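note to self — DONT lose this again. spent like an hour looking for the file last time. sequence + predicted structure for the chain T wanted, 379 res
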Amino acid sequence: MPKRQIAIFFSIFFSLYGLVNYYIFIRGYEGLECASSGVRFWYGIVFLVVSLSYIIGRFLEKRYLSVLSDIFIWIGSFWFAFILYFLLSIIVLDLVRLVDLFGHFLPTGEEYLQLKFYVLLGDIGLVSLICFIGFLNARNVRIKKLVLEVNKRNPFAKELIIAVASDIHLGTIINRPWTKMIVDKMNSINADLVLLPGDIVDGDVEPVIKENLGEVLRTIKSKYGVFGITGNHEYIGGVEPAVKYISEHVVTELRDEVIEVAGMMIIGREDRSKKTRKSIEELASGLDQSKPIILMDHQPFKLDEAVSIGTDLQLSGHTHHGQIWPLNFITKKVYELSWGYKKKRNTHIYVSCGAGSWGPPVRLGNTPEIMEIRLRFLP
């Protein structure tokens, strides 16, 4: 991405981030009208620190990885989820106040100030509960099973089991214990083949190296190997160092490459972030169409491309299905398939909502997953 576009993106992002935080801050400050000046002062200090935590953490992380940078990143990451639900709840409360202009059903004077204070406490408690439930959900990775029939023969086996884990996002949030939990779930499948369709690393690879997460990846069990592709987050944090580290720890990265594994042709596409990635036609040139074809493409755009080259199974991720409700309504509008299974002609397509999380370690409206796909071939 050109520097000018990066500058424009961050200018828009920080402007919106600042405005939303200011809106939340003002409404909270108004809710403390009946509190002492000392309480309102500390409210302002705490709000400022929390709202800037993610930026502070990333700044410190770039200079020196430490417990302090981790703490700021954890606080800031949770704050993204809190922002969303505070914003939604405040909009609802402002609509109630608007209706009150016509109906006059809310109390006035001191009673109104007391009501605002208790509503503020209730809102903080409710949003905290929602985010805590979302955190527990994000930590509870499920194994989702899918049986697919492929109308081709495979001399290796009549059936192969594939474990698929997209969007792990290794880093400060998806740390060593979390990564071990994901790998243990993956190993419980006893897969013939393990596929990782992008965003293995969250961004900067330094926290991954610090936590030595590659050694956890080495414990992945697979009869025919572990294969991954790049996602947009590898490009955000520096694709070459990320790929180098991952490749040194059991994962074979396919970067616009086609290989034959266990009687199947596996196509691994570079992420769309690479503007010069090969076209699907280039990758399909010379493919043995008699063999089962699996395509890994991180971002699930242009699904008909997979169909056009005779793909039997496309695996994607990226969407997280919005990760936090109600953002799933946006991803459903953006993508033909935001999460789940679809068949187009003879092509099976599965878009995973991911095994890890990006930003807030919170998931609501979807369940983190590792896919156990049983491919059954013609006898």
